[in-house]
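Structure ticket #2291
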Amino acid sequence: MSEILRGKDIAPARGKLGVLMPGIGAVSSTLLTGLFSHRRGLARPIGSLTQMGKIRLGKRTEKRFVDVKDFLPLAAPADLVFGGWDCFPDTAYEAARKAKVLKPEHIEAVRDELEAVRPMPAVFDRNYVRNLDGQHVKKAATKRALAEMLMKDIEDFRTAHKTDRLLLCWTASTEAYREAQACHASVKAFEAGLEKNSPAISPSQIYAYAALKMKIPYINGAPHITTDCPAFLELAAENKVPICGKDFKTGQTLMKTILAPGFAARGLGISGWFSTNILGNRDGEVLDDPESFRSKEISKLGVLDTIIRPDLYPELYGDLYHKIRINYYPPRGDNKESWDNIDIFGWMDYPMQIKVNFLCRDSILAAPVVLDLILFSDLAARAGMYGIQEWLSFYFKSPMAREGLYPENDLFVQRDKLMNTLRYLMREELIHHTGLDYYYDLEKNGQK
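Resolution: structure written out below.
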């Protein structure tokens, strides 16, 4: 009954892995402070599956559990080097101080490494992030020229740091909501749009184009579409580059993908789910703009349908009223607070309520997600995997899926898919949790 697949030939993780991040703000500076501290033995990378997680191999009776970092040929944290771009000139040290996510003493302990991460001028368009007024930006006659400037930045970084491999991870602000246009229909159309300065081409798409053109993996940590359109899927396939996204799954949506599968598994009905948030920091400031909020709202709203399946269970979920609000509240800083009111119903349609108040630290939850995505995306590239990496949906609010498939949002299904992909890569038996191996063994031994 067990299944062993062919697996993958994975190139070794030799040399340095360069990580370039558009956006040196709260999330990236928190990641860097924690990672640099971990490398010095000053902090633990809690929340990171690659650093602290274990994976089960074989049958339960074998009791084989190994550390993920020992099981897979992952890049070592010591081999990661960082750079990036931002519309503000602050170093990672200055960004960490301003974000106030971490205590000053934790930032000071790795000040030298943080100060070395100095952002390059960003590709920035106020039409896509209205509430920021960045001055540390690139100027060019065309968006094609901006893409070429980014490619030069990438090549200069590769040369300066002597990196063997590179990847890009978007850790900047949420862009205004835009649907795909004609310029996103193919690589040819997109490149023509770059030449013509198409207003439908966002800054994040210029970064993604530069990365994929140079055969570098791209991770989209925000809810805007970026690579989730035909032009980028074509380019990723053509250059055999892995891509993944969208929107790091951290606070309130993480809770939804934990709770909703439980309600659905027990056949409990849901009549309403009201979610509201307060947050400060730059993220809250950006999301105070209705168009940027729209990108986030779509990302958050899409989570429930594929878990509870109102199309299959209209009597339980067909009339679900799902409402989301985000409010900018500067005094709270990065310490986001979310409230969920969930109206459920059970036997004989009797109503019940659940209240969830999550006082989370958004960047603290995001940092290990970013680290895992960096290491797993690099692993995918070395294994020759390209295009949408659905097995990484575990980390995203609005995961990308191949054409014709709905995205999987159930956290537990996502985790199974992630773990089985790791087993597949290393030619280990896949685990399906069916329990049928037990009965298969009985029958094989002549027992009924």
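Closing remark: The domain at 252-359 is CATH 3.30.360.10 (Dihydrodipicolinate Reductase; domain 2).
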